Amino acid sequence: MVFFCCNGCGDTLKKQKVDQHPCRSSYSCIDCNVNFAGNDYKKHTKCVSEAERYQGNLYQGKEDKGALKQNSWMACVREAAESCKNNCQLKGLLIRIAENDNVPRKKAKFLNFIKNSMRVGNKDLVEKAWDAIEKAGKPQDNPSIEENVEKVVADPVKKSKKEKSTDCDSALIPLL
């Protein structure tokens, strides 16, 4: 959760409450101490972690696989918006979808997101948007292939541990 401090009166506000704040001055993020003028704070969705803030140069960040998958998904959404030329409604919807950062990657959740968050009731249009995004994502790297590679890499380690334990067990059996 990102918190902001009003530079006018000093109030501490959650991101959702900044719009309702009466001061309308600039705001600064409490975690990273960055100042935002006007509505720039809306673009501030991710901040430094506590570990990163307090460890400084010693901090070694982890690879965030969820963010990588979401970024590749959003690239597919943007590519679908750019490649759509025939249907103006579809192109407009894809552009609106591309403006969001939290577009679901599963079909059922995607359909629900478009219906509720974007207020689009045309199911055929939403299905076409899903198909266009899916089509734009086909030529790119498939994350399931990366997951399979990780499983294959992880399995030999497990097998080597099992082999060691079976070697020990087989060595004990003749002794009994």
Describe the structure.
With 176 residues, this protein is an alpha+beta fold. It has helices spanning 50-55, 65-83, 88-98, 107-117, 123-137, 143-175; strands spanning 3-6, 12-14, 27-29, 35-36. A four-stranded antiparallel sheet has the order 2-1-3-4, with no helix packed on it. Helix 2 (65-83) packs across helix 5 (123-137). The model is unreliable at 144-176 (pLDDT under 50).
> Strand sequence of the main sheet, in spatial order?
2-1-3-4
Radius of gyration: 24 Å
The biggest sheet amounts to: 4 strands, antiparallel
The number of strands is: 4
What distance lies between the first and last C-alpha atoms, to the nearest angstrom?
61 Å
Q: Tell me the fraction of residues in β-strands, as a range.
A: 5-15%
In DSSP terms (H or I, runs of 4 or more residues), the helix count works out at 6
* Helix-strand topology string: EEEEHHHHHH
Q: Which residue ranges are poorly predicted, with pLDDT under 50 across at least 5 consecutive positions?
A: 144-176
Give the CA-based shape.
Answer: globular
What percent of the residues sit in helical stretches (DSSP H or I)? Answer: 40-55%
Summed over residues and divided by their number, the pLDDT gives a mean of 76
Structural class: alpha+beta
